[in-house]
Amino acid sequence: MVAGYLGGWFPMDEPGARGPVGWYECDPRAVLPVDGFRVPRTVARTVRRRGYAIRIDTAFDAVLTACAARRTGVWLTPRLAAGYSALHLVGLAHSVEAWDGERLVGGLFGVALGGLYTSESMFHRAPDGGNAVLLATAGHLAERGFTLWDVQMASDHTRRFGLEEIRPAEYRRRLRRALAARPAFA
Fold this sequence. Notes:
Blueprint: H1 2-6, E1 10-12, E2 22-24, E3 29-32, H2 41-50, E4 53-56, H3 60-68, H4 78-89, E5 93-100, E6 103-113, E7 116-124, H5 129-144, E8 148-152, H6 156-159, E9 164-166, H7 168-180
Parallel strand pairs: 7-8
Antiparallel strand pairs: 1-2, 3-8, 3-9, 4-5, 5-6, 6-7
């Protein structure tokens, strides 16, 4: 899996698929700016009002399970989930979590290599749980010195935060620079 990410690819799988997991490259590739992450005023206000506690890596498996349980666009198969769990055990995959008391209400997970962070999937179980983890991730990446935040494919939601779509050659150029950096995620 690490070799795929280092090459600028990302995995996707299908339930019941046999053979190797597929690796893909988007054209254009979607990245969120670490510096210059845009927070809409309404999002900032509602996230602040909710007051969710943010934690890092305290419930990685629960975040992974919640992301895999999504009803549409299933790509996080058991074999891919096992790969991300293995990456978490060696300190390369991380989760950002939103908590309401003892209830996990939102989370995302991704892979950190050098100054690259890939957001692989996210979920929310309460209003603004997903937005809370996006804002927290942006702040965390900026504080730690990450330079490339890969989200693979654009969505209307991520466009609100300043998403940029770039060509594969530009992505690989930014990836090389990011991999030369050595920030620590956790």
